[in-house]
Amino acid sequence: GVNKVQISPGGRYCAGADYSGAIHLWDLGSGKKVSVLHPMDDESAPVSSFYVRDQTTVHAMSFSTGGDCLAVGSDDCTVRLWDVRTAVAARNNAKESLQTRPVKAFPTRRTVVMDLQYTKRNLLLAVGKYT
Predict the structure, then answer these.
(1) N or C: which terminus of the chain carries fewer CB neighbours within 10 A?
(2) What span, in angstroms and rounded, lies between the C-alpha atoms of 57 and 44?
């Protein structure tokens, strides 16, 4: 099931988080799923940066003002950023897997990320709960 939904500011994309921590991205114009934003199983990636444990809960999603970046916060105490345009282009051009890695990850040590918002100036604000 889906536990969190966010529409991009221009109304082009819809992001929906499932209970495994994966973010499914749909193009609202075509109605097609264009990407699954989830860290890939990559042995070379630092565990602290990209690993999402099984059954993590996404509490927060926010598109940047232009809709080209998606920030995601979850109970694994990490904020992850995805470049939406790159995720969609990789899928369309290479016809490869829908799965895409985050561009950047920010571990918060022990703070569960409960809310994320972009300001009009494209600054990212985060609110957490210390555990």
Answers:
(1) N
(2) 24
